[in-house]
Write a sequence for this structure.
DNA sequence: GACTTTCTAAAACAATCATTTTAATATTGT
DNA sequence: ACAATATTAAAATGATTGTTTTAGAAAGTC
C-alpha cells in the first residue's frame, strides 16, 4: 500500500543537526536545510511537523548520536578516572580550531528563540550529565580517590559549571592555548 | 543652523541594548527597537547606520555603562579581595530570577550572526577582564595572599573560564540554588 | 521672515521567512 | 492493470526582515 520513503530520516536529521549546531536555530532557515539535505519542502514538513519539531528532533539526535560517547565515558568508568577522562574529552574538543561549541549550550543563552520543549531538553541534558558526575564522584569517594570531607553533589555541579565554562570560553579563537592548563586547575579541587 | 535632536542618544542606545541583551541580536528586529524607543526608523538609520552598527554601539554602551562597576571592583581593589568581590558580583547576578546572562557572552556562541567588528569587541572585553584579574592576582601574590608557587596568568584564565561557566550555567532556571557553593569551590584553587 | 538643516511620519522596497497548496509522479499491495 | 498511498517539484501565501525614499513639519541661524 503506497510508496516507501526515498530519503533516510537519520541522514536528514544529521545534516539538519549540523546546520543548527553551526549557525544556530534562528540563523538557520528551513530553506537552508532543504538545500543541504536535498529533501523536498513538503516532505520536510510532513516528516517533522514544523521548524520547532525539527529542532527538537535534532536535539535528540545530538544527544543520542553525538554525545553518546561522552556519556559512555561516565557509565563505563563511574569513578575518578571517568570524571577526568570526561573533562578531558570536553577540553580536547574545545581546543580544536573548528570547534563550534555544544548544540545544547549554544542555545542555552538563546532560550527566547526556541520552543519550551527544546528548553526542557537542554535542561534535562545538563541534569543527566550532572547526575552521572555525581555518581562517579560518590564512587571515587568510596574508592578512596576523593577525600572523605568533599561533597560529591557540590563537586558535580562545580564541574558541570566548569564544563559550561570551557565550552563557552573555547569559542574565543585566541584563548584556546590556555585551556589545557585550565583543565589541570579545575581538577585541583578534587585533590586534598 | 537647523533643528536639534529631540531624542536622547543614550536613552535610545540603552533601550536597544536591553532588547539585544534579552532577546539576542537575531531575534531583535529593527521594528522592535523602533517600537520600544519611539524613535523613527529614518532617524534610527541616520544615527546608527545599520543594524550591525547599532549592535556594535550597544556592545560599547554595555561595556561602559553596565559593566563599568564590575571593572571598577578590580581597578579599585587590584588584589585578592578584589578578585573575590568580582567573582561574587558575577554570582550574585546569576542567582537572580530574572537573570539574562551577559550581552557579550550571550553572543559568543552566536558569532555567525553578528559582524566581525562585534566579535572583536567581545574578545577584547574578555581579554580586558582577564588582564585585570591577572594584575590583581599578581598583587595578591606580592601581598602574600596567594601562594608563591601559583601562576597568576593561569589562574586568571581559569577564573575567566569559570565566569563564562557561571554566566551560562546560571541560565538553567533550576540550577541557581547550587551556584553559591560553586563560588566557594572555584575560589578553593586560590588557597594553598 | 528667509534659509537651512534635521527631524518625523508613513509608504515603498525587495528579500527572506515559515508554511501551505496544487498538481503531477512514483511505487507499492492486490 | 487498478487503486491506494507517498513523494515530489514548484508555485503561492502572507508575514516579517532590513533598509530606503518621499514628503512635510519643526526648530535652529542670519
Amino acid at each position: 500500500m503506497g510508496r516507501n520513503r526515498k530519503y533516510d530520516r537519520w541522514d536528514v536529521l544529521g545534516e539538519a543537526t549540523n546546520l543548527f549546531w553551526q549557525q544556530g536555530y534562528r540563523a538557520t532557515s528551513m530553506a537552508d536545510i532543504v538545500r543541504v539535505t536535498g529533501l523536498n519542502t513538503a516532505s520536510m514538513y510532513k516528516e517533522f511537523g514544523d521548524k520547532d519539531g525539527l529542532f527538537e528532533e535534532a536535539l535528540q539526535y545530538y544527544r543520542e548520536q553525538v554525545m553518546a560517547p561522552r556519556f559512555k565515558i561516565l557509565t563505563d568508568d563511574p569513578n575518578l578516572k571517568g570524571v577526568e577522562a570526561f573533562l578531558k574529552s570536553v577540553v580536547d574538543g574545545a581546543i580544536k580550531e573548528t570547534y563550534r561549541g555544544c548544540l545544547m549550550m549554544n542555545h542555552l543563552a538563546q532560550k527566547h528563540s526556541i520552543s519550551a520543549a527544546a528548553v526542557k531538553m537542554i535542561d534535562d541534558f545538563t541534569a543527566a550529565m550532572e547526575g552521572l558526575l555525581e555518581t562517579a564522584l560518590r564512587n571515587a569517594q568510596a574508592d578512596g580517590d576523593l577525600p572523605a570531607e568533599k561533597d560529591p553533589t557540590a563537586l558535580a555541579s562545580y564541574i558541570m559549571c566548569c564544563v559550561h565554562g570551557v565550552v563557552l570560553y573555547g569559542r574565543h579563537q585566541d584563548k584556546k592555548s590556555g585551556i589545557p592548563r585550565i583543565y589541570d586547575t579545575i581538577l585541583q579541587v578534587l585533590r586534598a
